[in-house]
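lol ok so funny story. i was supposed to be doing the assay writeup but got distracted and ended up predicting the structure for this chain instead. priorities right. anyway since i did it might as well share w the group, maybe its usefull for someone
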Amino acid sequence: MQVRTYLLSLAVCCQLPLAAQKYWQQELHYEIRVALLESARSLRGFEKLQYVNRSPDTLHFIWFHLWPNAYKNKSTAFYLQMEQLGLRNLSPAGGPENGYMDSLLFRSGGNPLRVIPDSLNIDIVKVILPGPLVPGDSVTLTTPFFVKVPPYFSRLGHDGESFYISQWYPKPAVYDSYGWHPMPYLEQGEFYSEFGSFDVHITVPASYKVAATGQLLDQKELSNYRAGGGSIPVGRNNPESELADSARVTKTLEFTADRVHDFAWFADKQFRIYYDTLRLPSGKIIDLFAFCRRRGNPAWTKSIGFMKDAILHYSRWVGEYPYPVVKAVEGPNNEGAGGMEYPMITLISEPAASPESLDGTLAHEIGHNWFYGALGSNERDHAWMDEGVNSYYEFRYEAEKYGNISTLPPALTPEAPMSPEGLLKGVYEIIGRYPNNPGIDNPSTEFTEREYDFVVYYRGAWWMSVLEKALGEDKFESGMHAYFRDWKFKHPYPSDMRKSLERNTGVSLRDVFRLLF
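and the output, tada:
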């Protein structure tokens, strides 16, 4: 995988001729049914996937990610990276309680397909197609799957009766103009996935409330969530007393989502739910939900207001919020865990955060619906395209609203009180004095933990400030709006961002983009 990553980075830097082809991207349609087995801390599911080949190439196989297998033993790329980063003590040592995925049987047209494991990573497999998949054609694949959910310490996990379900289903790797992008699950280094549609049926014990990517179609459950999430009487299949255990009474909730490249869901019996709607400048009305822990951080009582502010700011600065709903979930009490974004939903674990700090984190994670969600860049190889760009807008949001940036370490914060503009200028002057080594546009795997935070997030935001200065405020804002329009629901690379900005502003940005290296 290191060789694959290096070759991909070299291709991006050198702008191989493949990248000059007319843009295309693959198309996926998922139908997934999954049941939460509460006492076994596991999932049992069935996936039906239609894969549409929009590429100019004939395909003979599809790489799949089976990312729960990253938790399986001490030899996976995930565990090895945790050890390299000095984070091994945060994770279980490996054993029967660790996560994994099995019970897979890929079929097409009822016929079993050959599956070849990746030689380096147990969370990647190659599925051989039943025949050549020519351009414009599609193939439908099915498989059952079983997931053992590990104790929560990374992204997928359980914490008592709370379940945090992400990267949980068999997922095709991206195939784009640079080829296939199979990659192991890592702690440092996020994801790159294909856009598509999801129709997901989630069966849980009746006492659970579920927050998930997309729109909830069950109107009774939706009305309950909008009212605050109190208990709903659920009829039993059998009145006998042995069925009094609530885990034996289940409900199935259906969620749908379009033009997204991932699906995550979270289930808890004790969620407190806040709800409101927001009218965007175009007149479009979206739903907002906050799912909070019963005895969690009291700052979450202000969460809906924070979410509204963030959405309106980003919509003004970049382009209108592109989805029908936004949700935020208060995660387990893992101090310092921060947030993790998924389309239309984010999980945030900051049990001691002040209201200002929570506001900044919510803005950052909701902001990922623009930079990662709609603009689906390759986060593993160009992390700054989501984290750095998004941090720039988060810093603007916090500076404008509070006159400070609560998510910055003290070493990067100017000492004297300043106006929002002066504060941002001072922050970027401090960041700019640090040497740009390694370069901003490096694969996530090539940074130490400290470098990743500073270079990707902070120097990435600094680079955006240089870009703004090079263009001027008006051209910068109109250019970012144009970039969002040009590449919404697509996979932009750094060269695509540059070309879009240059085409829409008339300014050469060659020297600015050189700073990324």
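The CA atoms of residues 90 and 153 lie 7 Å apart. The mean pLDDT is 90.
back to the writeup now i swear
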